[in-house]
Amino acid sequence: MRVRCLFFAAYRDILGAEEIEFELPEGSTVERLIEEVRARAGAPNLPQQLAVAVNREYASRDTALSDGDEVAFIPPVAGG
């Protein structure tokens, strides 16, 4: 199955891309996708605790993915 990942702000800078498609085995979870993302160059610098949204809804690491899902990696927000 194919999922489309969106990266914002610092995550976009780390990965060098705004969007990347990943091919995953059927039944994969967000955790499996995070492992695939971390395997890319520069990605080991991503924080251990990642906020992820699947199809615009926050998701846990055990959330099952489906073909065509959009997964957004959301960096922490700081303000003042």
Short characterization:
By secondary structure, the protein is α+β, with helices and mostly antiparallel strands. 20% of the residues lie in helices and 29% in strands. It starts with a strand and ends in a 6-residue tail after the last strand.
Description:
- This protein is α+β, with helices and mostly antiparallel strands and 80 residues long.
- It has a single domain (2-74), classed as Roll (Ubiquitin-like (UB roll)), CATH 3.10.20.30.
- The protein is built from 2 helices and 5 strands, in the order E-H-E-H-E-E-E.
- The protein has helices at residues 9-15, 30-38; strands spanning 2-7, 19-23, 51-54, 57-59, 70-74.
- Strands 2-1-5-3-4 form a 5-stranded mixed sheet.
- A hairpin with a 2-residue loop joins strand 3 and strand 4.
- The chain is globular and about 30 Å long.
In whole angstroms, the N-to-C terminal distance is 41 Å
Overall morphology: globular
What is the assigned CATH homologous superfamily? Beta-grasp domain
As for the CATH topology, it is Ubiquitin-like (UB roll)
Please indicate the percent range of residues in DSSP E strands (runs of 2 or more). Answer: 25-35%
Strand order of the largest sheet: 2-1-5-3-4
Number of domains: 1
Alpha-carbon Rg, integer: 12 Å
Q: How much helicity do the residues have?
A: 10-25%
Class from secondary-structure proportions:
alpha+beta
SSE pattern, N- to C-terminal: EHEHEEE
List its traits.
80 residues, alpha+beta, Ubiquitin-like (UB roll), five-stranded mixed beta sheet, globular
